[in-house]
Recover the amino acids of this structure.
């Protein structure tokens, strides 16, 4: 697939996806939803890719949905029907692919992140933001709509109900540093250090136990709805799978031999 709205490159075990509509602050449109989905499908199917770095071009990470494009209204339906159909068919599957990837995804948030862009950022596993970046949910106070692209699931789980409601109902900007303090993201760094920090993290994770990382992601996600006993059972089954990989015995051997492990991702 030839990409028009994103940049895609792979170097070693790291795939880099860059949202590339800087003239509209990397606003999400239908081609971008499709291209992000395609890129993550490629990554999921390629065992040589062991980590992903997702960022944006220009002064924004993502300004949310491109509202200059109208939604198709189904026959006999309403514009709301068209929006919901597009979300079910195209938008939700895109963000689900990011969150469900069984490989680490690092978000390098280079600037303004608004609306659905917040959901795209938070679908990443480790979010590193430039100190000049900020997060803002413009859905309700500006547009009269509901936060989407995963925001109503991610934000309250990361920062709690009170802060999630405050952000959604007021539309106030949350600085990168406060987002880190609240636990919404992993960390905030100086602007000049963002890409180097994110690249170093991606490279580190790309040399790790990729299958084990996927099991960790699955277990943490499952803990949101599992009871304690169910989570203990999941941990046992996850360890069964981990110990049957190549990387866990290698990690144990390296630990006992006091050397650096050499993980293959298998």
């Amino acid at each position: 697939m030839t990409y028009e709205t994103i940049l895609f490159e792979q170097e070693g075990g790291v795939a880099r996806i860059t949202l590339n509509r800087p003239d509209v602050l990397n606003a999400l449109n239908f081609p971008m939803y499709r291209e992000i989905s395609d890129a993550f499908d490629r990554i999921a199917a390629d065992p040589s890719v062991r980590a992903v770095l997702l960022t944006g071009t220009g002064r924004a990470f993502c300004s949310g949905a491109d509202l200059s494009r109208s939604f198709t209204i189904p026959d006999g339906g309403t514009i709301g029907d068209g929006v919901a159909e597009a979300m079910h068919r195209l938008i939700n599957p895109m963000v689900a692919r990011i969150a469900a990837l069984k490989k680490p995804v690092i978000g390098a948030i280079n600037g303004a992140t608004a609306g659905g862009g917040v959901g795209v950022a938070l679908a990443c596993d480790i979010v590193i933001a430039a100190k000049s970046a900020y997060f803002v949910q413009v859905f309700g106070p500006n547009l009269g709509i509901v936060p989407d692209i995963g925001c109503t699931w991610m934000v309250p789980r990361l920062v709690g109900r009170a802060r999630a409601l405050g952000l959604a109902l007021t539309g106030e900007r949350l600085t990168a540093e406060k987002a880190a303090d609240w636990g919404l993201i992993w960390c905030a760094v100086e602007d000049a250090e963002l890409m180097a920090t994110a690249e170093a993290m991606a490279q580190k994770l790309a040399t790790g136990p990729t299958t084990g990382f996927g099991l960790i992601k699955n277990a943490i996600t499952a803990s949101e709805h599992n009871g304690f006993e169910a989570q203990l059972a999941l941990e046992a089954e996850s360890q069964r799978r981990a110990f049957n990989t190549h990387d866990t015995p290698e990690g144990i051997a390296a630990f006992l031999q006091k050397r650096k492990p050499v993980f293959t991702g298998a």
